[in-house]
C-alpha cells in the first residue's frame, strides 16, 4: 500500500514540475572530442552574441556586429576556439572587443572583454 501511495505521489509531483527545455543556442552543445569546424564555431559564436544581447548583457548595437577573427588558441585545458567581435560604436572603448571562447569540439566556455 505504501508503494502505491508513493508511486501516485511521485507521478502527481512529476506532472506539476516544469519541463526542462533547451535554450535556443543548445544546438551548439557537442559530445565527444572531434574538433568543430570553423563554420560551426562561427555559427555558435553568432548565436552566443545574439543570446547575450537578448539577455541584456550586451548593448543592442552588438546585434549587427560581425565576427572579425576566429582562431585556435592554447587554453587552460587544451585547444580552444577564440572568436573576436569588434564594435566601434561601443561607448566604453575598453569594451570594444568581445571575446567568445569555445572548447575545441565547439562547446561554449566563456565570453568577456579581456580576451583571457
Description:
The structure is a single chain. With 116 residues, the chain is an alpha+beta fold. Helix content is 28%, strand content 26%. The chain has a 4-stranded antiparallel sheet with strand order 1-2-3-4, covered by helices on one side. A hairpin with a 4-residue loop joins strand 3 and strand 4. It is extended, with a radius of gyration of 20 Å.
Annotation keywords:
4-stranded antiparallel beta sheet, about 25% strand, 2 helices, single chain, alpha+beta, 4 strands, about 120 residues
Q: How is the topology of this model organized?
A:
Layout (H helix, E strand, L loop, with lengths): L1 H15 L21 H17 L12 E9 L2 E9 L10 E7 L4 E5 L4
Antiparallel strand pairs: 1-2, 2-3, 3-4
Biggest beta sheet attributes: 4 strands, antiparallel
Low-confidence stretches: 17-25
Mean pLDDT comes to 83
> Treating each run of at least 4 consecutive H or I residues as one helix, how many helices?
2
Number of strands: 4
Query: Level of helix content?
Result: 25-40%
Overall outline: extended
Terminal CA distance: 59 Å
